[in-house]
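A protein record in our archive is deliberately plain, so that people and models can read it alike. The tokens are whole numbers drawn from a learned vocabulary of local backbone shapes. For reference, a complete record is included directly beneath this paragraph.
>
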Amino acid sequence: MSARLNGLDLDQLRLIDQTARANPGAVAALNRWSARVRWQDGFTAQALIRNHTLTLGEPADLAGDDSAPNAVEYVLAALGACLIVGFVFNATRRGIRLKNLELALDGQIDNIGVFLGLDQAGHPGYREIAVKAYVDADADEAVLREVWAETVRTSPVGNTLARQVSLTPELAVIRTP
């Protein structure tokens, strides 16, 4: 049985690292991700991702039934999850045992009025997102700050949010009998 740290198989992590260094093309498939989202009813949708299903909705104050988080809340959760994974990965690579890790995220939409069709000023996306990490680990604060900085710098979701991404919208009209 392989040694484990922070719930991760250390031999498997070493193998991934060795494979990526020896043959970067072998991990190129990890550059592409996909999801399919299908409308259910009202403001409820279902996202199909690999073998997983997520439900999306809207809160009651936006005429939803509050049965699930909405898309902008999932953006916060996606960023938080990505940062958690990155922190655990970076800490584990350094041999740091984590005891507790939690992130608090808070986002401010620039102007929801644009989404609602009431305003043209600004944009309907996040203007800013604040993330605070709470960590208890077997390392001194300076090392944990280095791990956090590396995690933020290398976060795929963080980079997606911080950089302009090419969005290619397309519409296919279908007719159901």
User: Anything to note?
Assistant: The chain has three domains: 1-31, 33-69, 70-163. The chain has a mean pLDDT of 95. Helices lie at 10-22, 71-93, 112-115, 141-154, 156-162.
